[in-house]
Amino acid sequence: MPHHRRFRRALAAALLVVVPLSGALAGCGAGTKAETLEVNPDTPATTLGNLKVQNVVLLTGPLADGGPLAVTGSIYNGGALPDVLQGVSVNELPLPAAFTFTPTSPDLRIPSAKSLQLGGPGNVGAVVPNAADLVRAGMSRRVTFSFARAGEVSLWVTVLRAEGVYAGYGPIAAVAGP
Prior knowledge:
This protein is an alpha+beta fold. It has helices at about 1-25, 170-175; strands at about 45-50, 50-60, 70-75, 85-90, 100, 110, 115-120, 125-130, 140-145, 150-160. Strands 1, 2, 3, 4, 5, 6, 7, 8, 9 and 10 form a ten-stranded mixed sheet that branches.
């Protein structure tokens, strides 16, 4: 019997050491100011009421600067009521985006607690005519999103070529559809 008592005492002592350490090792002491909470994407984002406009990028064709621009990004509706994207425009270009739809994204409604994805396979395409090739890769331009309920919001967006991770998201893919 004494052997079992020693084993139980040793087990209890080990648990008394391990259990408090597990909380410290899990990073719970970092609190709400942890450095990992400060990591943000390198694409612009903004909010307008319950709408979050995120990961917005303007894309030129993959082979050349200029030409039409594809707008990519995500719009999340955190509100109780749906909203509708009415338009997208680039500050110095005279025409707004023309939209193309797919069977999985047939309109510009943003239901409550859902997202509308712009650009990419199976998503709504948004292409802005680039008059006189005023906008080129490497530039930054102000893009304005107009919504039926929430109103308008603008953010500065980087212009990139549709290559690498953005291959298949450019203006030619948006016009062609799936």
